[in-house]
């Protein structure tokens, strides 16, 4: 008989406990956890973030308005209330993990860039020019040595 190796799917699954990023609606850019799956297009989410301005009330969210993240709250019971979700959210440090993720850091950087004034943009331009010059100088030195 042939040896068959069964592997778990590598994509992110819609499951209870999966943390999602809301992309549309009044809670755009906030995190929430899937508490219950309503049907193949909608889920019940609850986002009890530790930061007051990032909380998401419990509501039904279309999956088209959400992006699944890599974070999962393990052992979250189906249709759990806000209290147990909050405890598991804090225990698993979802806000801290999200802040360290590349997507969150890139989003924060883009927001900071958008809010620069003219003089700050000019300073960024000058610093980038200086950095590029230093890299070119080091590269020329390596080429001359070779």
TrEMBL record:
Domain KOW as annotated: residue spans: 13-40
Coiled-coil residue spans: none
Source organism, top-level taxon: Eukaryota
Keyword Disulfide bond: no
Keywords, comma-separated and alphabetical: Cytoplasm, Ribonucleoprotein, Ribosomal protein
InterPro entries according to UniProt: KOW, Rib_uL2_dom2, Ribosomal_eL14, Ribosomal_eL14_dom, Translation_prot_SH3-like_sf
Cellular component annotations (GO), alphabetically ordered: cytosolic large ribosomal subunit
Function recorded in the entry: Component of the ribosome, a large ribonucleoprotein complex responsible for the synthesis of proteins in the cell. The small ribosomal subunit (SSU) binds messenger RNAs (mRNAs) and translates the encoded message by selecting cognate aminoacyl-transfer RNA (tRNA) molecules. The large subunit (LSU) contains the ribosomal catalytic site termed the peptidyl transferase center (PTC), which catalyzes the formation of peptide bonds, thereby polymerizing the amino acids delivered by tRNAs into a polypeptide chain.
Family assignment from sequence similarity: Belongs to the eukaryotic ribosomal protein eL14 family.
Protein name as catalogued: KOW domain-containing protein
Source lineage: Eukaryota, Fungi, Dikarya, Ascomycota, Pezizomycotina
């Amino acid at each position: 008989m042939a040896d068959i190796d069964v592997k778990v799917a590598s994509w992110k699954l819609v499951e209870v406990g999966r943390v999602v990023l809301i992309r549309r609606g009044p809670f755009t850019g906030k995190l929430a956890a899937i508490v219950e799956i309503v049907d193949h297009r909608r889920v019940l989410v609850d986002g009890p973030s530790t930061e007051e301005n990032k909380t998401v009330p419990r509501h039904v969210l279309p999956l088209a308005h959400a992006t699944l993240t890599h974070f999962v709250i393990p052992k979250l019971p189906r249709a759990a209330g806000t209290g147990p979700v909050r405890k598991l959210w804090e225990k698993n440090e979802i806000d801290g993990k999200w802040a360290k993720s590349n997507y969150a850091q890139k989003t924060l950087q883009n927001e900071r860039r958008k809010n620069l004034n003219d003089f700050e943009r000019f300073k960024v331009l000058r610093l980038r020019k200086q950095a590029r010059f230093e890299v070119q100088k080091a590269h020329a030195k390596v080429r001359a040595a070779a």
